[in-house]
Amino acid sequence: MATGRNHRPATRSRGIPEATVARLPLYLRALTALSERSVPTVSSEELATAAGVNSAKLRKDFSYLGSYGTRGVGYDVEYLVYQISRELGLTQDWPVVIVGIGNLGAALANYGGFASRGFRVAALIDADPAMTGRQVAGMGVSHVDDLEQIIQANGVSIGVITTPGGAAQQVCDRLVAAGITSILNFAPTVLSVPEGVDVRKVDLSIELQILAFHEQRKAADELAAGRNGTPRVPAAVERRAGRAEDGPEGDIPAVMPA
Amino acid sequence: MATGRNHRPATRSRGIPEATVARLPLYLRALTALSERSVPTVSSEELATAAGVNSAKLRKDFSYLGSYGTRGVGYDVEYLVYQISRELGLTQDWPVVIVGIGNLGAALANYGGFASRGFRVAALIDADPAMTGRQVAGMGVSHVDDLEQIIQANGVSIGVITTPGGAAQQVCDRLVAAGITSILNFAPTVLSVPEGVDVRKVDLSIELQILAFHEQRKAADELAAGRNGTPRVPAAVERRAGRAEDGPEGDIPAVMPA
DNA sequence: CCATCTTTGTGCACGCGTTCACAAAGGCAT
DNA sequence: ATGCCTTTGTGAACGCGTGCACAAAGATGG
C-alpha cells in the first residue's frame, strides 16, 4: 500500500521513522525514572508529559514498535523499558573511543551518562605525545598511532571526535578506515564520510547562534509591538532594548520578498 | 489560501523557516573560512558542498534572506557573511552565563568557540561553595546565590545549564525568573519553561543511543543479507557479528505489523 | 453477563521541508 | 550591441512528520 515503489529503504530503518528513533531515548529515560520509583504502569498521557511530547505522537511512535499497551490501562513500564532498550540496541555492549582528549574530551570521559546505558569507553586517544600515558577519568590515554589497533582489538564501532576542527576530518578518515561506522562529532567541522557511515554532530556554537537568532527576533518583536500585547518576560526585553547601542538600524527593513 | 487560519505565527520567525535558521550558522562557518582565504565570490554549488548540503536547498535558504546573489557569478563572500551575521544577530554582543561548573561546564568555559562569534561568557556559576572564587578559564566562579544579580547586572539573556540532571529544572526556573529567555541545556532532563522562552538541548546520551540504533540495524542488515550486496565496511561488520555472544536471538523476529 | 468507562491504536488531513527542473538574469567574449 | 554561457531564484510536486478525532479493545463494576 503505502510502500509503493521504495527506492531507498536506507532512510527508513526497518520501518521506524527517524523522528521516532530520535525520541525513543527520551521515552526510555522517562520510563527508567518511573521504573526506579516502582511505578508498574503508565498511560500515554502521563508518559508523554514526562517526556515533553504530545500523547498522540507518543502512541504513534510506540505503534511502530508493536502493540505493547493495554487499552484502558496503559503501558507496562518494565516491559516497555525492555522493548525500547532492545530496539535501540542497548541490550548489547557498545565500546566507544574518544579521540581528542582536551577539555571536552576529558569531560566526556568523566561523564557518567556513558556507562549508564550499555556504552563503555574503551579508549581515550590523543595525538599529543605529552598526553600519552596520562590518566584521565581513571584510564590511560593512548597515542593516535595505535588508533587502528585499539579499534580492531576492542571491536569498536562508535567513535567520538573531540579534536580541534582542523584535525577532525583526518581523524574521521582514520576511524572509518579502521572500521568505525558511527561517529559522534563535537568538532566544528562538516565531516565527509563514505555511505554506510553515520555521523551525528553536536555543535555548541551553532546552538548558540540559533538561540541568538530567536533572541534577536524576540527583542525586535517587543520593540515593534511597543505597547501591544502582554509583555512577556518583560525584564529581559527592557534590558536588551536598552543595551542595543547600535540603535534601530539593524533590522527594521522588513525585506518581505514580494 | 494555504495559510488558512493561522493560529500560531510564533513558529515561523519573520518568515524564515526554522530549518533554514538552523543551517545559517553552517553557511556562515563555511563563508568565514572562504573569507579568511580571501575568496571573493562563491557559487551555490561550491558553498553547498562546503557546508555539506544540497545546492538547491542552500539557494532556497538564501532566498528567504533576500536576493544577495548575482546570476552567472555567485555570491559575494564578504557581503553574505555580513548579511547572515546580521540575520543571526551576531553583530551584537551576547553575554551568556554557564551554570554548573563541573567537568563539562569548565570545558565549555575554556572552549574558544564561544568568543569567536559575539558570545561572551559573562559569568560562571556553581552551587558548590567550594567552587566559589576558584579560577576557571581565567574567570572567577560565582555562587548561585548571586545568579539573579549577575544576570541583571550584565543584561544576560542566554543561559547554559551544565548541572547534573537533578538540579537542572530548579536552575532553569531561577534563570527564567531572572529574565533569561534562551537556554542551552546539557543536562539530561526535559526542562519545562513558560512560553516565550527558547530551550535547546544537547544530550550526549541520546545521540549515542541513536547511533547505536543505526549501528544495530546495519549489523542486522549485513547478517540477514549474508552474501548479498557489496559488503560495505566489512571489517566492522565481521567483528560485530563475531562479537555478538547473545546469538541471533535478539532481533530476528521481523515484527512487521500487518 | 452486560453496561460503562478508560485508554490505546490509527485513519486522515494538513503543513513544513526538500528536491527537481527551468525560466529569468546577468556577465563576458566577440 | 548581440548572442552565449553560467548561475541564481523559485514554482511546483512530493514525502515526511504531526496532531486530531474516533473506533476498537479491554478492564471494571454491578
TrEMBL record, chains A, B:
Major location, coarse class?
A: cytoplasm
- Positions in coiled-coil regions: none
- Domain CoA-binding, by residue range, is 89-190
Subcellular location per the Swiss-Prot or TrEMBL entry: Cytoplasm
User: What keywords are assigned to this protein?
Assistant: Cytoplasm, DNA-binding, NAD, Repressor, Transcription, Transcription regulation
Q: Where is this region: Disordered?
A: 222-258
Q: Which Gene3D superfamilies match?
A: NAD(P)-binding Rossmann-like Domain, Winged helix-like DNA-binding domain superfamily/Winged helix DNA-binding domain
Q: Does the keyword Cytoplasm apply?
A: yes
* Residue sites binding NAD(+) per the record: G100, I101, G102, N103, L104, G105
Indicate the secretion signal residues: none
**Pfam families referenced in this protein's UniProt entry, alphabetically:** CoA_binding, Put_DNA-bind_N
Q: Which SMART domains match?
A: CoA_binding (SM00881)
Q: Residue ranges of the DNA-binding region?
A: 26-65
Q: Which domain of life is it from?
A: Bacteria
| Biased composition regions of type Basic and acidic residues, renumbered to the chain | 237-246
Q: What is the role of this chain? A: Modulates transcription in response to changes in cellular NADH/NAD(+) redox state.
Q: Which family does it belong to?
A: Belongs to the transcriptional regulatory Rex family.
Record's subunit section: Homodimer.
Name this protein carries in UniProt: Redox-sensing transcriptional repressor Rex
